[in-house]
Amino acid sequence: MGTSTAKEAKEYFSNMERHRIIFKYESIKDDLAIQLAFNSALSDDRKDWIKWHTEDINQRREQNLPADYLYKKDTKQINFNDFINKELVLFSKSSTERAIPNIMDGLKPGQRKIMFVCLTKNLIREIKVAQLGGKVAENSAYHHGEQSLTNTIIGLAQNFIGSNNINFLVPAGQFGTRLHGGSDAASARYIFTRLSPLALCLFNKNDEPLLTYLNEDGMNIEPEWYCPIIPTVLVNGAHGVGTGYSTDVPSYNPLELSNNMKYYIRQEREKQRELNNPTSAPRKYSDVIELKELIPWYKNFTGKIQLLDNDRTRGVINGVCAKLDESTLEITDLPVGTWTQQYKENVLEAMLHPKRNDIAPSILDYKEYHTDTTVRFVIKLTHDQFSKFTEAGLHKSFRLQDTFKLTNMVLFDHNGILRRYRTPEEICLEFFMVRLKMYVKRKEYMVGTLESQCSKLDNIARFIKEKIENVIVIENKKISAVIDMLVERKYARDPEKVWREEAKKRSAVELSAHVVHEDTDQLADLQRKQEDEDYDEDDDDERKKKPKTTANANQVDTTYFDYLINMSLRNLTKERRDDILKEQKEKHDKLDGLQKKTPEDMYEEDILHFESEYAKVRRRICERIFKKEDKFLLGDR
């Protein structure tokens, strides 16, 4: 092993009796297990094999049972059946997990690690792709080559036709073009990236404390899945091949997906009304939203994509060609996934220069007028050639037509089970139900946060008032006596600290490491600044050295009252008191507003915000394109 030192290698081989494990053939089960793992005709059985193993792991986890490991401390020999079903299946499952994304975020593990680091580090300033690759490897327990990681980062930032409908990272530099399908990207040490504005809209920071984070060797890493506001697996599509499984999910229009989410939101809102208050009138809307049939869509593609009338699981993608005159044909777009250079070499060159000498050229000549984003071939033909191609069909003759199927949309569901989905609408509906439950959890978490902050501010405001009025006297008193007085006057232990501790107990996630960004405790920041101004380092050290004391027989921890006892004297001034009262009112108003909202209302707000940001981004792109065209025209003049 490359990780072993020379000394460790000597230790291994000097005690072969302990470290060698012998394979033993026991029965026909061993033969069947080997056939299952390696026989190419049993690929469907391997699907069930991986699925059963995944379900077994989930059941053990739910029942708090230990994992079924193959190797134990005293293991001396194993049979082939156990090795296949307990060890090799882990490799096959891992291979499938790396190749097939989750329905919730559309990300594979490598992509999710990248988004985890970008989101937790709030990567809104440009960073070299090579440096980002190093950060991801360091902070997310990435065990593969960094070259593979940088290629994945580049893939998340690509935005040419056929790559991403929404690129989660911004491409600052040469990240590849449709000329070569992205393989012409520059080296990772020359290009820069950062989080895109739309990625920040899709992956809401307020969801982060609610996700289930994985843990590897004591380090918290990326979650099992992120929960964007629309199914991003349909936004950018998914392709991959794993053990026993492969997947092929086309891309769809983000605005159509957001429209369907709004339709589901209104349906759910109406269902809740009928359950909770059936006599009330249905809610009226200023617009009518209908559930749209989802047809594959690719940003900036000018060709036509349509599903077959007699089979909606199959479809056709047509490029764009037009007749300029009787001997000239113009091609201005290629089917999605057909790259410009590839088309030139495999189609037009083969027509102009056939490999066999006894076959005449099919065209006279062709010229290229491409840019890095557009395609334009101008093809010269004879009159007879043009008539022949027209009769046979120009799209078919020039290979400008491609087909696709929707029968292999395989994804991990939110429970980590592999499933085959029949339609994109089925994916949308399952995504919506899980996403809505997350809004219920988000509201509970945000309400809990705001209630604790409001309670803390209420206690602080009352303490300041009573201190000014000399109702409370703490001068020249022992800390235990002060705590007794606060408890007697019904001052609460630090509500925010208590709430976070309770939330931490309810979840395995270290919630205190995450904050709800919209509800940052400004008072805490204010107090920290005041403490920095009012206390020098010696005083800080002195306070740290003081042992924690208790106030009564109930063993009250004095640190829970530090938010009052350690308060700066500046808070007794009129200006500071007014600031705290203002903050108190704002928090209560925010809490009241949040409590009046339903999870459906919160979801709809996020969808509308995303649509607004999406429109802004598209508008900026159009403005840049127009500016380029204006410069081009001025240059010609």
Structure description:
Strand 11 (320-325) and strand 12 form a beta hairpin. The relative contact order is 0.08. The chain has helices at 6-14, 16-19, 28-38, 43-62, 80-99, 109-120, 129-139, 146-157, 197-202, 232-236, 254-276, 340-352, 383-392, 394-397, 424-468, 479-488, 495-506, 522-534, 537-545, 562-565, 574-596, 599-636; strands spanning 22-24, 77-79, 127-128, 192-193, 213-216, 219-223, 238-241, 246-249, 304-307, 314-318, 320-325, 328-333, 365-368, 377-380, 401-405, 409-412, 418-421. With 637 residues, it is an alpha+beta fold. It has 22 helices and 17 strands. The strands form 7 sheets. Strands 11-12-14-13 form a 4-stranded antiparallel β-sheet, with no helix packed on it. A 3-stranded antiparallel β-sheet has the order 9-10-15, with no helix packed on it. The termini are far apart.
Q: Strands of the largest sheet, in order across it? A: 11-12-14-13
Number of strand segments: 17
Tell me the major beta sheet. 4 strands, antiparallel
Write down the overall mean pLDDT: 86
Q: How far apart, in Å, are the first and last alpha carbons?
A: 66 Å
Return Rg in Å. Answer: 32 Å
Q: Proportion of β residues?
A: 5-15%
Uncertain spans:
508-554
Helix share bin:
40-55%
SSE class: alpha+beta
User: How many alpha or pi helices?
Assistant: 22
What sort of overall outline do the alpha carbons produce when their principal axes are compared?
Answer: globular
